[in-house]
Amino acid sequence: MSMFWTIWISVLTLGTIFGCYFLLRWCLSNNTGVAEGEPMGHSFDGIEEINNPLPKWWTILFYVTMVFGLVYLLLFPGLGSFDGLLDWKSSNQNIQSLEESEQARIQAKEEGILVEYDRELEFAAEKFDPIFEAYAQIPVEELAKDPEAIKVGQRMFLQNCSQCHGSDARGQRGFPNLTDNDWLYGGTGDKIVETIVNGRQAAMPAWLDAMGEQGINEVVEYVLGLSGRNVDDELAAKGKPRFAVCSACHGPDGKGNQALGAPNLTDNIWLYGSTHAIVTDTVSYGRNGVMPSFKDRLGEDKIHVVASYVYSLSH
Fold first, then answer.
1. Is 1 annotated to bind ligand?
2. Which chain regions cross the lipid bilayer (predicted)?
3. What was the pLDDT predicted at 235?
4. What are residue 196's DSSP bridge partners?
5. Residue spans per domain, the chain
């Protein structure tokens, strides 16, 4: 923070506190010329104003709040760039990655700086890590039957996964529906854990340069026919031999390959959409969706619980 804003904030803050102090002192002084306990000469609706001093309990409480405010400003950040005598921070600032956050946490601990967010993380780790460690000893398929574990997994899913897959886990265009039985890489407990731990990188190549527009049209027609759609039989027949280059990933029958993450093209479930135009875009320009790794963000024990929740959605 610049010196200008430090001075500006300090003047406003301290000016308010000392302004309240002088206002209180002025209210405590008897400048009316009327003795305490005597009428002020004002009355309204039969009620007469008496020159009474402020209640002592109220006055003392006001003084206490002002002293508390000054002590707080000395100990904690609050006056611009002044960090306070305790070296306390609510969190490490200007962090842009998990790596930077971890480095800042270690540095703050070495320098004896009190970072409230770090302390809360340590408290949470001490309290909850043993619970997650116990959950991690139970196979995903079995843990998916534990109602309490599923509630925990659901909350972590909402915090970390719902941005892409939706709060109901039904996905959206380009992000898989996790509630059905259609899995690109496999829907077993171990495979779900593997996906969340390591992430996934799609690698659907573009075929426009190799096949040309006419070739793309023929292949798309054949692919759409695999799922029982009404297609141009003549174009589809021409697309069948061209599909040979696609079969390396999707298989000769188009049923996909979970080892590669290649989708089944015969079930009429489409990640990016099933219209002729969208499938044409997919074949022409490829797809390169990314599922990020959550290993560093959540850790394997918590991932195990999230995977159990995801597994429960489709089983």
1. no
2. 7-24, 60-82
3. 94
4. none
5. 1-22+53-86, 138-201+292-314, 208-288
Of the options 3.40.50.970, 1.20.1560.10, 3.30.420.10, 1.10.760.10, the CATH number for the domain spanning 208-288: 1.10.760.10
Of 230, 229, 254, nearest to 242 by C-alpha is 254
**Residues 193 and 299: beta-carbon distance below 8 Å:** no
Q: What pLDDT, on the 0 to 100 scale, is given for residue 185? A: 95
Residue 66 is labelled as binding a ligand:
no
Question: What CATH class does 138-201+292-314 carry?
Answer: mainly alpha
3-class state of residue 201 by DSSP? strand
The answer on whether 42 is annotated among ligand-binding residues is: no
| Secondary structure class of 224 (helix, strand, coil) | helix
Instruction: Give the confidence band of 197 by pLDDT, cuts at 50, 70, 90.
Output: very high
What's the pLDDT score for residue 38? 83
The answer to whether 20 is a known ligand-binding residue is no
Q: Among residues 279, 289, 301, 153, which one has the least CA distance to residue 226?
A: 279
The pLDDT-based confidence of 36 (bands split at 50, 70, 90) is confident
Identity (one letter) of the amino acid at 144?
A: A
Q: What is the DSSP letter of 48?
A: E
